[in-house]
Design brief:
The chain has 82 residues and is of the alpha+beta class. The protein has a single domain (1-70), classed as Pemi-like Protein 1, Chain: D (Ribbon). Helices cover 20% and strands 24% of the residues. It has helices spanning 18-23, 52-61, and strands at residues 5-8, 11-14, 30-35, 38-43.
Length: 82
């Protein structure tokens, strides 16, 4: 299948048919890899923070869910040197 480049500011883009996006499970983001003279487009399927809940539960079970920085620490910026 051929597609034309479309100018977008100082860059270029390509239009991908909806059917191809659906088949490849592409939604909002893609990873681009360059191999030789080819561009390979991979869908980004992993969601940020996926699995965090289970990991937090493991930390709790192991007693590793303590604060690293004390909540009572005064972090006012008036004493900071910039």
């Amino acid at each position: 299948m051929r597609s034309s480049l479309v100018p977008i500011g100082n860059s270029f883009g390509i239009r991908l048919p909806k059917a191809i996006l659906k088949i490849c499970h592409i939604q909002q983001e893609v990873d681009l890899d360059v191999k030789g003279h080819s561009i390979i487009i991979h869908p980004v399927l992993k969601k940020p923070r996926k699995g965090w809940e289970a990991e937090f539960k493991k930390m709790r079970a192991c007693g590793e869910d303590h604060l690293i920085i004390d909540d009572l620490l005064d972090v006012g910026v008036e004493d900071w040197e910039w």
